[in-house]
Specification:
Chains A, B: It comes from Paraphaeosphaeria sporulosa. The structure is a homodimer. Chain A is of the alpha+beta class and about 325 residues long. The first copy, chain A, has two domains: about 180 residues, Nucleoside Triphosphate Pyrophosphohydrolase; about 100 residues, 2-Layer Sandwich (Transcription Regulator spoIIAA), CATH 3.30.750.160. Helix content of chain A is about 30%, strand content about 30%. Chain A is built from ten helices and twelve strands. At the A-B interface, strand 10 and helix 10 of A face strand 10 and helix 10 of B.
Chain lengths: ~325, ~325
């Protein structure tokens, strides 16, 4: 197997584009339900019919089959809506309706409206059921040597339920409700790579974000076909040679320090977790390693890494 | 006047998004004609009805009012099609049909098909009539000082027909047919800023591209409302303090060396040419000066700077 960079992008940004094929797009959309909140007449996410069906007749939810809309009708404030969502999901967790809920994290993710207002919080494991936008931070740590750049690449523990044994970015994690992106990064840098907080605060640089519309496959665990539009804030951190990232918990097996060519080889073999591959490709583009001259799909890749969603974002 | 960064993005990426408002999008599209080439059943650009009308009955062109498609029927090779396009445009230039053709450049731009094959060349000044994707290079030159970064900003000559007197990127130019992006950059660096070729070749770094769908307004000169989807390959060049860009032709009035705050002030005053403002904003994002914490429209801006077009690109 040798994957192109565009193959890797297709794996993480698998939802069809209206611009490319309006008919295919319409055919996809027409099978889904929109998630809405009362008094906010726009989609917050797309839901599979098999998921929407479970909400039929549940208190504080309205399922409209004609317009294919699932509306959260309970609550008028973020706190009230969040309470309804939590009650419903805890009940569904107990009844064992969804495999993704077996990986309950006790971590809340925010869902925003068009005015960037918090509409409600949702348990992290449940967010793909609603197809809402989630937010995370991804950091690439690298070392500049005379003979070229080296990149720190961790391998995920084989025992991890999701993407076990795959390659990752040096630090990555989700942004919980109420957390600011950079503070989330600082926390993850300590937890996942044991990086000194002072160093991270002074040297980690915000360099943009990637946005893509992931459709969950087998490697994600749980139900497949669930929709997961994601925003990942991207950071670069140049490390001195004497700072070595160390796994801070049991989620990482080990860290490799690889040349750019080594990273490219492992990318082409499909060893990276899909969204981490996207972050590496973005890094290569920003650092002049992938160029219009050596990457024939340059423009397509750059656009696909920065998708504009159908849903509001922060 | 104090413009936000999102205001500046809206100015350069003014075409509606299907994802945001399907009805508005459909209403816009429904008034336009698609440009096509025989045996390639997809749009290469959008054309105003007032422009399409002029091609009615012209040899080697077919105007389909029902499906709203203008098809170039003449020629089966790129060379043959280009000859037809040139003949038609030269005739239209003589008859004075379009003001944009008064700025005839004698410079050809490429139009590509879905397999990245060259379909035909078109005179640069005429490309907005067809609404086809055009390609360019933009370079930000900067100096690292102990007290912070300085950015070289040229002011366009007041006598320039397009965007006269506005602020620009250090180097910018269009990529002509047959030209490779980086070679186009090297040429423009000499012509526009008198930068040493060796320095540009060794130090200029490809850092991505921006893509946006510009709708021409008064400042562009000629007919307004013409559609101009553009790809600009983006480059960074850190200059030593003793290298000073100098206008190499009469297109630039003078170069300023400004702090980031000074650049931000002039951006907010609307003094930058629209797509050059977009390149500066992209620079600020990649260099950690605009962050999720200090720019409330961060995600929206990043996505809008990397639009996926309805049309094929290289």
């Amino acid at each position: 197997m040798s994957l192109t960079n565009l193959d890797l992008i297709n794996a993480v940004d698998g939802f069809p584009y209206y611009q490319v094929d309006p008919d295919l797009y319409a055919a996809s959309i027409s099978t889904y339900y929109e998630l809405r909140v009362t008094d906010h007449a726009y989609a917050l996410g797309y839901i599979l019919p098999s998921v929407a069906e479970v909400f039929r007749g549940v208190a504080h939810w309205d399922l409209d089959d004609e317009d294919r809309i699932l509306t959260l009708t309970g609550g008028t404030t973020a706190a009230e809506r969040s309470a309804v969502v939590a009650t419903t999901l805890e009940a569904l967790r107990k009844t064992g309706h969804f495999k993704v809920l077996d990986k309950w994290r006790n971590e809340l993710y925010p869902v925003y409206g068009r005015n960037k207002e918090l509409l409600f919080d949702v348990e992290r494991a449940a967010s793909p059921l609603f197809g809402v936008v989630t937010y995370g931070v991804h950091l690439t740590a690298y070392v500049k040597r005379d003979d070229g750049l080296r990149i720190w690449v961790p391998r995920r523990a084989k025992t991890k339920q999701t993407y076990g044994g795959m390659l990752d970015n040096a630090v990555a994690g989700g942004i919980a409700t109420g957390e600011v992106a950079f503070e989330s990064l600082v926390r993850e840098c300590a937890e996942e790579a044991s990086l000194p907080e002072d160093l991270v605060r002074s040297e980690a640089r915000t360099v943009g974000c990637i946005t893509y519309f992931y459709v969950r496959d087998k490697s994600a665990g749980g139900e497949t076909g669930l929709m997961q539009p994601e925003v990942e804030y991207v950071y670069d951190l140049e490390l001195p040679e004497d700072i070595v990232p160390k796994p801070g918990d049991d989620e990482v097996e080990q860290f490799y320090l690889w040349t750019v060519d080594e990273v490219k080889d492992h990318l082409a073999k499909g060893e990276f977790k899909p969204n981490c591959a996207a972050v590496m490709i973005d890094f290569f583009i920003r650092h002049g390693m992938l160029t219009p001259e050596n990457e024939k799909d340059f423009i397509e890749i750059v656009a696909r890494l920065h998708r504009k969603f159908e849903f509001p974002t922060l």
